Amino acid sequence: MSPEEQTTPSRHEVGRILIADDEETLLRAFVRTLSSAGYEVVTAHDGTSAAALAADASFDAIISDLGMPGLDGVELLRAVRSHDLDVPVILITGSPTVDSAIRAVELGALRYLVKPFEPRALLELVGDAVRLHKIAKLKRQALAIVGTGGGQLGDRASLEASFDSVLRTLWMAYQPIVSWSDRRVFAFEALLRADEPTLPQPGAILDAAERLGRLEELGRAIRRRVATVVERAPAAFVFVNLHTRDLLDEALYSPDALLSKQAHRVVFEITERASLDDVPDASSRVAALRKLGFRIAIDDLGAGYAGLASFAQLEPDVVKYDMSLIRDVHQSPTKQKVLESMTRLFAELDLLVISEGVETPEERDTLTALGCDLLQGYQFARPGPAFPPVAW
Q: What is the pLDDT of residue 107?
């Protein structure tokens, strides 16, 4: 069986692909490979023509050579991003440079592929790109279904005093994440708590830390407390929330940190509600965490930023649906359709999916029927000191 046959996408994956390359021989080879796999292929011989095509029509993925007359690949990517934040762009080159790679990542290229490469590699990458584009569109549907909110902070002097009290009284509650199909606890999520009445909710504590410029201090305190209990957790993993700015703390990457010594059992959750735009080299920072043994999860999927930026930068192992998508899912055919489609696509990308905020048997049964096996919420246990039992 040929590589093309082995990686031929199923019908729901097939999409419309724009290819831009000024080398006619390579362009014909790309068209032959993708067309044989069922894709509809549109071609351009220079960046200017490709930009015009991308502006006038919809594509599921764009493949562009880096060095072309008119607009080069990076300039084409910039032109595409000016009107389409979702479509995945794959840049290919036979003469890679550090500068061009950096510019491609900064502008949100999905991948930077170096020639020569096998047809199989191209098909696998295009298949992933098409799936991610569909996910991006489904996420926009999810954002249309749910909303977000926020709160207010008090005056600075009072806030300083309250935050000092938070650091003195901070503790971690744990909530189980269960596999419903085999009735086992898959993991526990560590949740921030503090005995400070003026900052009673985790969101209020994080807002205070951000306003005071003390996020690093808070993040380190949280990780120290989690590190003391990971070893005795009666589950494979412990999920720990990271603020995006925690990625700027060099202490996070120390192999000597207590939590780093147990990295193989820790999954860092990074919320989709916060942008990674203020984190330089976010991808390389996440890669450094993976090198230590940590896994990465995208939290609050469906309630944060639409598009593919978080996937391209974080390359997560796990995604967690926001509870606003889960609430009353048994009564919403629209939510069910979006969740079922996203869950199938994530499974094809070998990503684990967790449904957060499950509160009723009806929500549980609907989610499992949609293919969501990993569940978290009051239906199973409320957050509590390490480690609460599950009500099966």
A: 65
pTM of the predicted model, to two decimals? 0.80
d(CA 353, CA 23) in angstroms, rounded, equals 41
Domains of the chain: 3-145 (3.40.50.2300), 156-376 (3.20.20.450)
* The residue to which tokens 């971690």 are assigned: 172
* Strand order through the sheet with 111-114: 40-44, 16-20, 61-65, 89-93, 111-114
- Amino acid in position 224: R
Distance CA 339, CA 326 (A): 9
With a cut of 50, list the residues of the chain below it in pLDDT: 1-12, 148-154
Q: With contact defined as beta carbons under 8 Å apart, do 76 and 59 qualify?
A: no
The predicted-structure confidence for 6-58, as pLDDT tens digits, reads as follows 444 444 458 999 999 999 999 999 999 999 999 999 999 999 999 999 999 89
HEC per residue, the chain:
CCHHHHCCCCCCCCCEEEEECCCHHHHHHHHHHHHHCCCEEEEECCHHHHHHHHHHCCCCEEEEECCCCCCCHHHHHHHHHCCCCCCCEEEEECCCCHHHHHHHHHCCCCEEEECCCCHHHHHHHHHHHHHHHHHHHHHHHHHHHCCCCCCCCCCHHHHHHHHHHHHHHEEEEEEEEEECCCCEEEEEEEEEEECCCCCCCHHHHHHHHHHHCCHHHHHHHHHHHHHCCHHHCCCCEEEEEECHHHHHCHHHHCCCCCCHHHHHHEEEEEECCCCCCCCCCHHHHHHHHHHHCCEEEEEEECCCCCCCHHHHHHCCCEEEECHHHHCCHHHCHHHHHHHHHHHHHHHHCCCEEEEECCCCHHHHHHHHHCCCCEEECCCCCCCECCCCCCCC
Q: Tell whether the torsion through CA atoms of 109, 111, 115 and 121 is positive or negative.
A: negative
